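Notebook p. 47: complex prediction with zinc ion.
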Amino acid sequence: MFILIIQADNRDEICPKENRNYIGGCYGKKIIGIDLGGTTVKLAVLTVEGAIERQWSIITDTSEGGINIIGDIVATLKEHLHKFQIDLKDIVGIGMGSPGQVDCKEGTVTGAYNLGWWCKQHVRSIFEDAFGLPFYLDNDANVAAMGERWKGAGAEADDIIFVTLGTGVGVGIIVDGKLVHGATACAGEIGHIVVDPGGFQCTCGNRGCLETVASATGIMNLTKVELSRSQAESQLKILANNGKIDAKDVFDLAKSGDVLAQAIVDRFAFYLGLACGQLANTLNPRYIIIGGGVSKAGEFLKNKVEEQFSNFVLPTVKDRTELRLASLGNEAGVIGAAGLVIL
Ligand SMILES: [Zn+2]
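Predicted complex, C-alpha cells below:
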C-alpha cells in the first residue's frame, strides 16, 4: 500500500513584498547585492540565506558628473546574469548601498560628491525599468550595518550600532531589527556630534566633531598637535621629518611602545569611547561594531576604546553592550545590500 503525502510548497513563489521576512518562501532564489563606491562598484549574486555565490567589480566612472555610473552597473549586471545563466524570474530583488544622502522611500541619491553626483539621481526608477525587479537603496554605512548584523559581528541581534572609521566617521543604527533613518534620512550622523567644543574645524562648518578626532583624518589632526608640543623621543618625529605619515604608522608605533604614538591613540580612544558611551546610553544596543579602514588596528584599538567606553556608560548598559570589531571586511556592502531586499 502506498501512502502519498502532499505538502503545501510555495517555494516557487517570489517572496511577496509584504512578507519580506519569509526567507523560506524564496528557497533557491537569488538576490543581487551592489556596493557603489567612489573607486569601484562591487556586485554579487547571493542566495536568500546571504551566501555569496558570484562576485565581481567594475571601475566607477566618475567622469562627466558620474553620468555613466548607473548605466555601467545595469550593463555589467545584464552581461553577468546572462553569463551565469540566471533568469530574472529567479531573482527576488536588487539591493544597493550608495554614498551621499539617500532617500530610500524615493529611491534617489543626492550629494554623493565622490561620485560626481551633485544633483538628485533617480536610481531606483532606472533599475526598475531595466530589470522589472524590486529595488532597494540605502546609504553605505546603513548597508554595511545591515551586512554585519546579518552575517558578521552583529550575530543577527536586533539592536546594533555600526561605526565605520575611514576618512570620516559613518554610522548605521539598527533598532528592533530595522534601520533607523529619521525624519529626513539623516539619522546616524554621529561623525558630527561634538566631542571637543572649540576643537578642530570640521568640514560641516562646526568645530570639534567626532570626525575631526576619531577618523583617519582625526588621527592626523591629533598627531600634528602632539608633534608640536611633545618633548618625548619618538620614531614618529623621525617619520614626520622624513615625509608622510599616516594613521597606520601611528597605530603601528603605538603598538610597539612609542610613547608619543601611544598618547595620540589614547586621545583617539578617549573621544571614540566617549561617543560610543553616549550612543550606548541612548540606544542600549547589544553590539557596537567598529569597522572601516582604521579598525584594521584590530584588538589593540578595540581594547583602548573599551577602556574609555566603560568610563562613560551606565553599569546596566555596560553589562549588555559589547564592543566588537567588524568581521566581513569588504563584503559587508554587497551582503548588506542583499539584506535590504530580504530582511
Ligand atoms: Zn562636523
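Notes: Residues 4-14 have pLDDT under 50 and may be disordered. The pocket of zinc ion is lined by residues 192, 202, 204, 206, 209, 211 (CB under 6 Å).
Next step: compare against the earlier run before touching the bench.
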